[in-house]
Amino acid sequence: MQIRENLEKREAEILSPYACHSTDSKGRDRAEEECDIRPVFQRDRDRILHSKSFRRLKDKTQVFLTPEGDHYRTRLTHTLEVSQNARTIAKALRLNEELVEAIALGHDLGHTPFGHAGERALNNVCSLGFAHNEQSVRTVELLEKNGQGLNLTVEVRDGILHHQTKGNPSTLEGRVVRFSDKIAYIHHDMDDAIRGGILKEEDVPKEIGEVIGYNSAEWIDHFIHDIVSNSYEKNCIVMSEPVAEAMARLRRFMFEHVYTNPKAKSEEGKAVMLVETLFGYFCKHKDRLSGEMLMLLERGEPLERVVCDHISAMTDRYAIAKFEEIYVPASWHG
User: Fold this and answer.
1) Closest C-alpha among 114, 132, 301, 55 to residue 293
2) How far, in Å, CA of 298 to CA of 316, rounded?
3) How many CA atoms lie within 13 A of 263 on its CB side?
4) How far is residue 173 from each of residues 6, 182, 224, measured CA to CA in Å?
5) Residue 137 burial (CB count, 10 A)
């Protein structure tokens, strides 16, 4: 049987000439025998899906810290929504869905507990700096599988590294994920903000609503249709100028009314303090790091970077428990 080879031939027949075909991958850092069933990007997708760092996303904050209710997004549900948006666009444009999905599922693997508050905290205290996109690449290259990494393809790692607005992915699939990430968080953060009583649909400015609608369901539909219609049969992923401007205005609106809203962010100072305190503690007590982290130190990795590895891998719940274990007397625990 030549199952993988037949799937690769099907890609050649179906995919756009601008798509990244599995057979054109630049490969992996460590050469491996090809799977007899799965093309390379499908294999990468599966490795990410089965990784420990992917499972931990379910207990990491997206935007709202310790929300009251079961329907607020977590870092995991955000990741799944990014993946679905990206696959919808990729299918319509005849791009490589498996590459898109692998990038989308891996793009936030290195994210800290407590969302961007945790990221800012580590960047504040680590002299080497900290950025979650770079940490996501470090996670798949080094931290997973006891220091062996997942050995993903160049294209998947490139898409993960450049998924932010300022990034410039080398493949159209990576650019689809970059747009899909923004679409996802604008959509679900508005939905969560309404659920939390922070915003109402009628708060959306008229100049935005007249272009893309007044609620998150209309936004996601406008964004995806606009990208598909303006990128179809082209070697680029773009929005029309009116919709791109509406998205930029909407992002500014969300930053002003949600991402810096005292009601949504009232607990962030505590989260920042917790992360910064844990960083200082583990820098002074490296013997308290996990065995995997100590192994990285033995391999010559800088202490501050390894402490960032240790803390960024924590879930919200584990970080709180570790802080209590270190700093709160046992008799004080409820």
Assistant:
1) 301
2) 28
3) 12
4) 22, 15, 14
5) 22
Residue keyed to tokens 């490296």: 286
Number of domains in the chain: 1
Residues 115, 63: contact at Cβ < 8 Å? yes
Query: Hey, what are 166's tokens?
Result: 């300022």
Q: Angle 89-45-191 (CA atoms, 0-180°, nearest 5)?
A: 50
What pairs with residue 74 in β-bridges?
61
Strands, E, within the chain: which ranges?
Answer: none
Q: 60, 57, 68, 132: which is closest to 264 by C-alpha?
A: 68
| Contacting residues for 59 by C-beta, under 8 A, at least 6 apart | 74, 315, 316, 317, 318
Q: What pTM did the predictor assign?
A: 0.95
| CATH code of the domain in which 231 resides | 1.10.3210.10
At which residue do the structure tokens 């062996």 appear? 148
Q: What is the pLDDT of residues 78-94, one digit of tens each?
A: 999 999 999 999 999 99
Structural domain boundaries, residue 25: 3-332
Place of tokens 């940490």: 135
Mean pLDDT score of the chain: 93
Contact 197/149 with Cβ under 8 angstroms? no
- 223: exposed, middle or buried (Cβ count in 10 Å: 0-12, 13-18, 19+): buried
Q: Can you read off the two tokens belonging to residue 194?
A: 């309404």
* Longest Cα–Cα distance in the chain: 67
Please give the Cα distance from 249 to 236 (Å, whole number).
23
DSSP assignment letter at 141: I
Q: What is the pLDDT of residue 65?
A: 62
Identify which of 146, 145, 173 has the alpha carbon closest to the alpha carbon of residue 157.
173
Whether residue 39 contacts residue 22, with contact meaning beta carbons closer than 8 Å, is answered with: yes
